[in-house]
Amino acid sequence: MNNQLLIDKTIAFVKKELEGAEGGHDWFHIQRVYTNARTIAKGEKVDSLTVALGALLHDIADAKFHDGDETVGPRIARDFMKSIDVDKAVISHVIRIMENSSFKNSLEKKGDTTFTSPELQVVQDADRLDAIGAIGIARAFNYGGFKNRELYNPAIVPNLNMTKEEYKKTTAPTINHFYEKLLLLKDRMNTETGKEMAEKRHRFMLDFLEQFYKEWEGR
Ligand code: ADP
Ligand code: NI
């Protein structure tokens, strides 16, 4: 099967898997990450099939969809890729990308020498870009609403030293999430293209926060 056919089949599979997913992690999130990944990949020496499959499958691994069991997503993805005869080495690489692309995982493995590859770096950047800027703001408040969080509470200060467990359990207002995660992402970008794109989206979030506080005080 040629690569484009493998990608098309994967798109159809992912769309079906993500039916009914919450707004921040739905098919359109995957579509944006896939688009970002292709843009970023143009400036990098990477295997484009691995990047495409990694971007398309990266959130099938999200344990939130599988009652916290982090092995379910990779298993589903592996079975699917086998069923369409993806090359064995590509399958293993995509699985490692899935296991390592999330921010929570990279938090957990802080300081560790974990798996990395140019393809993982592209997918990671593409996913991080979708957590910042206008889309990132929308996703954060969507998530906060889903969790019934306050928008903002001046009495609850951001916690910059959360463990993975605390990060999962936090009930802090959504504005705190900007300081705990979103504003940190631009300095974690791997690629040149990713860094440039992140810089613009970062500035947009700073402008948003400035305006938010002005309006909070009735200015
Ligand atoms: P990833 O896409 O890396 O798996 P998450 O699952 O942590 O990231 O988050 C998905 C989306 O929900 C992101 O846009 C993220 O910013 C947002 N989000 C996650 N945790 C919070 C939170 N505590 N408050 C507000 N938004 C959040
Ligand atoms: Ni994602």
UniProtKB/TrEMBL annotation:
* Stretches assigned to the HD domain: 26-132
A Pfam family hit:
HD
Could you tell me the superkingdom of the organism this chain comes from? Answer: Bacteria
Q: Which SMART domains match?
A: HDc
Q: Could you identify this protein by its name?
A: HD domain-containing protein
Tell me the organism.
Answer: Pelagihabitans pacificus
